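To whoever is covering the structure queue this week,

Two jobs came back overnight. Logging them here so there's a record in the thread.

Job A:
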Amino acid sequence: MSVNKDQVVDVLKNVFDPEMPVDIWNFGLIYHVNVDDGGKVDIVMTLTSESCPSAKQIPSDVKKKVEQLTGVATCDVTVTFDPKWTPQRITPEGKKVLGLDEE
């Protein structure tokens, strides 16, 4: 059984930074998701800062949860700070959760 990007994104919407009430997808921490035909998932993500106290935990959670998906052979998570995360990356759904949405 194969896995697709939408299934991976659904999993990412269930990974949270312990300091934020919004998931890492809607907070804009995920830069890239690629799923190949063999079930290998590559994720490029960032953190809000290089000194984030959860710098090891969040990528580890991503890998663990994605690898639990049926059809995923392996998941490689790369953390980058280029480009640097900014609040403009927060999705409209994330802004709503954070009370930042404009009405």
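Job B:
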Amino acid sequence: MGGGFAGLQAARKLARAPVTITLLDRHNHHVFQPLLYQVATAGLSPGDIASPIRWILSKQQNVRVLLADVAHVALAKRQVYLEDGVGIPYDFLILATGAAHSYFGRDDWQSHAPGLKTLDDALAVRRRVLLAFEQAERQPDPERQRHLLTFVVVGGGPTGVELAGTLIEIARHTLRREYDTIDPESARVVLIEAGSSILGTFPKPLRDSARRALRRLGVEVWENATVTEIEADAVHVGGDRVPAHTILWAAGVAASPLARTLGVPLDRAGRVIVEPDLTVPGFPNVFVAGDLARFTHQTGNPLPGVAQVAKQGGAHAAKSIRRRLKGQDALPFHYRDMGNMATVGRAAAVADLGWLQLTGFVAWLFWLFVHIFFLIGFRNRVSVLLQWASSYLTYQRSVRLITGPSPDSDVTPRNSAGC
């Protein structure tokens, strides 16, 4: 269940196993989530970071792909029930349905501060960001212009840092000569982090380097700043009210709500507390991988919700099923940390490889080629490389398209001809 990193990896690793695989996902495509922010900031198009699941697995004869929403799982009956009531039996089950946004009990904030988990999210964010500049261009009131050109990113993890750095670059470089009434360079970008530092999982030298890089770009970095309220046009941090037209959420995630249908112990984030071999307690034929699993047996701390954790978990589940088919016991999961990276604007990044720490342009080059290497499909890699090369040389972002309906926009064309 799930066509993300964990689900796809599991399916591929079972390609030559004597099994029949059914892969369920509510979307027909796999998304390379680490680059979603590039779609949200008009650097890449959706097709550059996503591929149809059926195409990815088209050469694998033992897989059936179904586009479907799962309503609940009956572990005792070994049945997965779809929303239309259809039940699908299984001998082994791999749960890899990922995570959703978490607003820490304030779900009412979601409409004011969208997050970034799917292609639809990315396109909605792209529209909101670009419309802010268009609305400011038509606004004669300088105070209203400042409000429209204020962007707040809540959450100082890799996604928040990457969003903030890219937003300020769009304003300072990409759009600076394209408007007559406003000065895009006057845009204000505020990055708010509740913890003591942005990029809290990185070593201190890299955190400090990222902070300096953001501030050089012009991003306001607020640390030890807890958001207490979000309105349609402002963020409250303690006693401070920050008026902002565009508020983006990168502060927290929660496990897929499907976990609550299992009737097994979950942690506070809704993740399944798994055994050392990634199985559900009491159900050795059910594996949980990726963001849905809380695995603490190796380090004592939960593993991060990143692609490499999901891929290794999916591969381990597949390997365990192969062993079970041979009458062997599943082995404990051992996570191999390959490092952590984040970009901090144009040609700048931080990379923690454990044995080596990189910053600046060298780290950005490393980040670039690692991400291109892991993109699925030759066309995707070539397209992304060419677009990034063009963006680096020209400061342009090639996919600045405003599409789709916007009920809160005052720049909707009067008719289909755009008049």
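Note for Job B: The chain has eleven helices and 24 strands.

Please reply-all if you pick these up so we don't duplicate work.
Q.
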